[in-house]
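User: I'm putting together a teaching handout on how multi-component assemblies are represented. Below are the sequence lines for each component of a complex, exactly as they appear in our records. Could you produce the 3D structure of the whole assembly as structure tokens, so the students can see both representations side by side? Please keep the chain order the same as the input.
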Amino acid sequence: MNSELFQFSTATVLLLLFAFYGGTYWLSRMIRHDGDDADGFMVSNRRIGLGMGAASMTATWVWAASFYAAATSGYTYGVSGPLHYGFWGALMILFIYPFGRRFRELAPNAHTLGELIHARHGASSQLILAFSNILGSVISLMVNLTAAGALVSVLSPLSFQAGIIIAGVGVLSYTLYSGFRASVFTDFAQLVAMMAIAVVIIPAVLFAMGGPSVMVDNLSNLSAEQANLFSREAFLHQGAPYFVAVLAYAIGNQTISQRLFAVDESHIKPTFITATISYGAIVIGLGMIGLMALTMGVEPMDGNMNNLIPQMVSSYLPPVFIGLFFILVIGSLSSTADSDLSALSAIMMADVYGKNIARNKADPRKMLLIGRMTMITATVIGIIFASFSLDILVMLVFVGALWGAIVFPVIASCFWNRVTNAAFTWSVIVALLVFCVVRFELLPMTGMLAVGFELLASVGAGVVGGLMIFGFFGKRLGVIAFFIATAVIAWIGVGQLREFTVLLSSLTAYGVSTLVCIAISLASKERFDFNTIQQRVVDYNAPADDELDAPVTAH
Amino acid sequence: MQTLIYGSYILVWPAITLGMLGMISYRVLRDYREAKRTNTDMV
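Assistant: Of course. Below is the structure of the complete assembly, with chains in the same order as your input.
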């Protein structure tokens, strides 16, 4: 094993970055432009095909942290580790599509989920959703730029800050002009590169270190728990908290809903299934490199788990593979960062300007200006925050809680006509407060108080299970699943869940928001007519007269 | 036997990735041809 990572020269790494961002920019210039097309800037032509849609979903969902975290999971939890990262992450994509079809049915002309919620409830609920989307995308942007800085500084003499600035400017350059359309179009090329490299690198590392037989010979390096495919420890520490976040991430992330509103409506299901399998295969596969490292007794350099994959590639493969790995990471972080920029611009254009400032009398030219200014501002903020390596753990925890708290109110608002604006808003606020009490242990988790929170968390687990079953099999089975899951988790979890603070707090947020939302809704006599949503959520570019007469064609 | 199981467990993921890469590329090619035929944009 080499004790140091391979180093590119400054010229080589600059050449690689220039080739990547130059090529991506060239691709983005192939898109035909309409200078006033605000709708196209946010959701393309709404008829993106299966291949392009699935590629874009996958590329967006695979970010730099996916590889590092999957490998870390493989290294920490052994055989089941990569599955407990990649499998649940993939399910996030799968479980959103039944709800996505409903969103699309209710508001076929929407650009963001916030617009739908605005039409359903009004400004306060919409702004809660928009705020959570903005926070999530800014954090994601920052994390991806940080990953670029770390990669460049680890593999070349260039500084951390130089890597951040090059990646930030590179992503902005090809996204600024065409927005979401450029994001989707370039995602395909980036995904092809990522997949091709993953297909080559995983077997290359395996056979370069001696093949599966060498791994089997070294299995003694694994503990009994690490060698177990059904490891309880891996499930409780890695899989379960991630599983709980499945719906929260999908609902709270505008990058996903933007694609839901952009792909061809008849292809939503196959698009999301294809993306689910693709994401799972890439991420679990690269996570296996962490398992290989564990088996071979490799120690992560400087104790930093993020060094595991570069270390394995650097140790066992020739420099050309390190170049491929470099492109793999740059591709993954860029495709996610451009989606974040597109998501942020759509939120500012539609949710903030379109709905709350122009109030549906938006000027498309002004919208585009706002969208592009948002991209520039977000990139500058991302570069500054990433350069200072700010500790964002608390923000991440808070965003996760916010997303967990909005899941039930958002989904219920789209299916149940009794949910009110007050029910939505208060359920999120109360759930967040209770989450903070549990997550930051503001009260002692002992005695009856702990039992109470564990019961609320059991309700939360029931909500997660119930919503997933409801999405695929309807209300009756969803309700049955809710009661079964709640009873089972209460049976197993009371007295146990208090030991797993992250899991307990996340589940509690789900449970509390659901109970509050249902209670306030039942107390109301309001009944909402879902047909009004379609009239309230409209395109910002009025169709030209000749377009109205023209037959519908597949763009 | 154990070698075969471990080898398959690791190599099945790049194999699936390759299959999905082929499928996505085929569908994009089909969409490209359709867009070209109708003189419209893919995105």
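A couple of points students might notice: Residues 245 and 404 of chain A are 7 Å apart (CA to CA). Residues 319-357 of chain A form the longest helix (39 residues).
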